[in-house]
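Hello,

Our lab assistant flagged a job as stuck in the queue for most of the afternoon. It eventually completed. Since we weren't sure the result was trustworthy after the delay, we are filing this so someone can double-check. Below is the sequence as submitted and the structure that was eventually returned. Let us know if re-running is recommended.
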Amino acid sequence: MTGHSLWTRFQLCGNVDVLMIITFIGYRGCGKSTVASLLADRLNRPSVDTDDEIERRAGCSIREIFDRGGEAEFRKLEQTVIAELLARTDLILAAGGGAILASETRKAMRDAGPVVWLSAPIEELSRRIAADETSAARRPSLTGRSATAEIADVLKSREPLYRETASIVIDTTGLSPQAVADAVYEALPPRVLTDQ
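-- returned structure --
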């Protein structure tokens, strides 16, 4: 299925076509950034990780943003950055795990194009996060509990929001990042894949 370009038609003023955004959501460690990059390569489109963009703009890590202004300050910055990115066109977006907490952001994601929820069991997420050497340095604990307990607590409140926001759900358990990217590509609606 090479030679495809990903887009949709949004009627703005008459017959103006606008390239769409594909947004990845899910808990930290589910593979959003890696899979977004792989899909972007396949579709020859740019990808942006919202956490990386927030850190770039703030000039410090997410952990430092939390330390300086708390979660509320981080969420405010996150909402602003995501709104700006969703206003662009022709982009694959890997959103932070808590980006779906703001109802305005959930709506904007859905309005911009397909939203892909990458899911995995708690134990798998915990294993992946523990294996990521940069994770603890960049991101703070949200509850102060053990990794597995925190994931369980946070997912309890976030899963309904992921479900509400997603147009595509992919269980990443036991799949390589490339297999997940292939599954996402195959799950995209036919109306979205168009020959160049």
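-- support follow-up --
The delay was a queue issue, not a problem with the job. The result is valid. The chain has a mean pLDDT of 84. Helices lie at 32-43, 50-58, 62-86, 103-112, 122-131, 135-138, 147-165, 177-187.
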